[in-house]
Amino acid sequence: MNMKLSDVFRGFWLDQERQYSPHTVKAYKSMLDAFLTFAGDVDVSSVTRMQVREFLNEQSRLYADATVVLRFVVLKKVLTWAADELEVDNPTLKIATPRIREQKEVLPLTEIEVRNVVSALSYFHRGYNGRQVRVDRRTAVRDLAMVAVLLDVGLRAAELCNLDVRNYTPDTGRIHVVKGKGAKDRTVFLGKNARFRVWRYLATREGADMDQPLFVRHHSGKRLEQKDLYSILVQAGERAGVGNVHTHRFRHTFAVNFLRNGADVLTLQRMMGHSDIKMLQKYVKLAEVDVEASQRTASVADKWGI
Asked: Do 118 and 236 have their domain in common?
């Protein structure tokens, strides 16, 4: 049976959507859209094993191994469903699930790296009459507000993008994170600098309704999506000469420096929304390494020869 991929995906959700949470449905639809963009809206019967492999190769250059595995699993689930419903070949049958290689430790950004990214989000240089002219970016106010929030309270990408204006209290900097990972709500508070950044951004959206998204696309005014946020950070990193710039790395940066600045692990656990304190061990380890290095270079007894 001939049927366009978009129609196949639509049929799958009509039949299967009730089995998944709204958050999962949104995430899975985004993953399927990625394959649709890659392959085009072709007949499902024309999708080949080679196309699927090429798609996975492309995704592996853009995303972590775990993300690529999940995208393959979702695609295989839908194409297996289509094979049963429409009696077409399943191109994923003889493709092994991609392996997750040993994960590299995600190191926090340094202060200099963050400042360079902030500069890249603020302006760029353009050639004019034989000289370089500094040009302010049109989305700088919004982008700087987002980075300030990521750095100050360590939100996940989905949590940041899902915020509405009503979830933020300007007077106190209170952010109500609605249904974060694990469908759990939590409350975090911004510091003064981040509050100023958000205040400055909202001032450009005078009259914004409480039900509107907190962060929106510049031209359409629609909710900023995770893929938009990903592109903003990656491109800023490229302009700044800083590699591997993404929301999760900002989350690591927040956690490690929160501990370095004297906060306790239990408060960090609440702020990050982790149900298991063991998840924080990597941050504690990095923070302790920093303390050890500082002690070697700044030991009072060593300096005084006592």
From this structure: yes
| Cβ-proximal residues to 129 (8 Å cutoff; 6+ apart), any chain | none
CA angle 143, 146, 151 (to 5 degrees): 125
Of 232, 247, 262, the position where a domain reaches its end is 247
Domain that holds residue 50: 5-86
My answer on whether 79 and 131 are in the same domain is: no
244-271 pLDDT, tens digit each:
899 989 998 998 888 888 777 888 888 8
| pLDDT tens, position by position, 85-107 | 999 999 999 898 888 775 566 78
Nearest to 52 by CA among 26, 80, 87: 80
- Contact between 165 and 214 (Cβ < 8 Å): yes
- Answer for the pair 201, 189: CB distance below 8 angstroms, yes or no: no
Shared domain for 67 and 22, answered yes or no, is yes
CA distances from 305 to 194, 212, 293 (A): 43, 62, 19
Output the pTM of the full model: 0.64
